[in-house]
């Protein structure tokens, strides 16, 4: 029976916490090289290479099936793989290479050299929150008198200057109408930050509602990504943005898990 050369940190930790005879160990925040090697193997060679690396490193399967599928689906080749080699061959290019719509691109498109209007407005405007006492209120979805969706819509409706929204997935047509009304009718400047991986769902909603570029007056849409993991080979993938918050007139902030 083949045995691993050593035991991975997570496996070792599991053995310690499951065995009552082990003494309490000091919490370890050091780098886990086995995890890095296995993740690199997944990026470079797929699931089978991942499991092989886990076996060699004596480590547990630390990724869920959803995570491994996401990494495989969103793996990108290094930029230099698309360059023409000396022998005339051209490196392969992944269809899901997000350079086709790079993070940081505005919709409608504007020059990166120009400062987004929101940032300019934010810099020059008075900030009342600096002069007021802050307070926090917690709402739960189970409270029928404080429906989360209605709270969001009321927040958008009472905004008079600037509205910033970060969403991982934005497909709510009614809230989108609230945003368009604020921007086009009340001249509120709206700044949307959407997860890069799910931008297509937002564009799909725009197509279904027949909302075109000319309807995006005072609205800037920007895509962002999570942290980027890069293997030694150069292959990489970006994490997802799953935070959700709204900032209204520099005065009110809604933050939570509601999508």
From TrEMBL:
<protein>
    <submittedName>
        <fullName>Protein FAM83A</fullName>
    </submittedName>
</protein>
<dbReference type="GO" id="GO:0019901">
    <property type="term" value="F:protein kinase binding"/>
</dbReference>
<dbReference type="GO" id="GO:0005737">
    <property type="term" value="C:cytoplasm"/>
</dbReference>
<comment type="similarity">
    <text>Belongs to the FAM83 family.</text>
</comment>
<feature type="domain" description="Scaffolding anchor of CK1">
    <location>
        <begin position="22"/>
        <end position="258"/>
    </location>
</feature>
<feature type="compositionally biased region" description="Polar residues">
    <location>
        <begin position="91"/>
        <end position="100"/>
    </location>
</feature>
<feature type="region of interest" description="Disordered">
    <location>
        <begin position="74"/>
        <end position="100"/>
    </location>
</feature>
<dbReference type="InterPro" id="IPR050944">
    <property type="entry name" value="FAM83"/>
</dbReference>
<dbReference type="Pfam" id="PF07894">
    <property type="entry name" value="SACK1"/>
</dbReference>
<dbReference type="GO" id="GO:0007173">
    <property type="term" value="P:epidermal growth factor receptor signaling pathway"/>
</dbReference>
<dbReference type="InterPro" id="IPR012461">
    <property type="entry name" value="SACK1"/>
</dbReference>
């Amino acid at each position: 029976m083949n045995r691993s050369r050593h035991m991975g940190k997570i496996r070792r930790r599991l053995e310690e916490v499951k065995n009552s005879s082990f003494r309490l160990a000091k919490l370890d925040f050091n780098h886990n090289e086995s995890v890095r090697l296995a993740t690199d193997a997944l990026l470079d060679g797929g699931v089978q290479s991942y499991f092989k690396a886990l076996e060699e490193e004596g480590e547990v399967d630390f990724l869920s099936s959803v995570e491994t599928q996401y990494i495989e689906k969103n793996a990108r080749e290094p930029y230099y793989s698309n360059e023409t080699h000396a022998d005339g061959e051209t490196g392969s290019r992944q269809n899901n290479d997000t350079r086709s719509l790079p993070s940081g691109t505005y919709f409608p498109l504007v020059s990166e050299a120009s400062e987004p209007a929101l940032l300019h407005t934010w810099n020059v405007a008075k900030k009342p929150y600096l002069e007021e006492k802050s307070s926090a209120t917690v709402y739960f979805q189970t409270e029928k008198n404080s429906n989360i969706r209605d709270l969001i819509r009321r927040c958008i409706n009472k905004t008079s200057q600037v509205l910033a929204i970060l969403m991982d997935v934005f497909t709510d047509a009614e809230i989108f109408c609230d945003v368009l009304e604020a921007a086009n009718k009340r001249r509120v400047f709206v700044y949307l930050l959407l997860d890069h991986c799910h931008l297509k769902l937002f564009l799909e909603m725009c197509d279904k509602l027949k909302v075109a570029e000319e309807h995006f007056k005072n609205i800037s849409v920007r895509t962002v990504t999570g942290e980027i993991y890069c293997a030694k080979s150069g292959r990489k993938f970006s994490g997802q943005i799953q935070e959700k918050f709204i900032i209204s007139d520099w005065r009110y902030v809604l933050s939570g898990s509601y999508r």
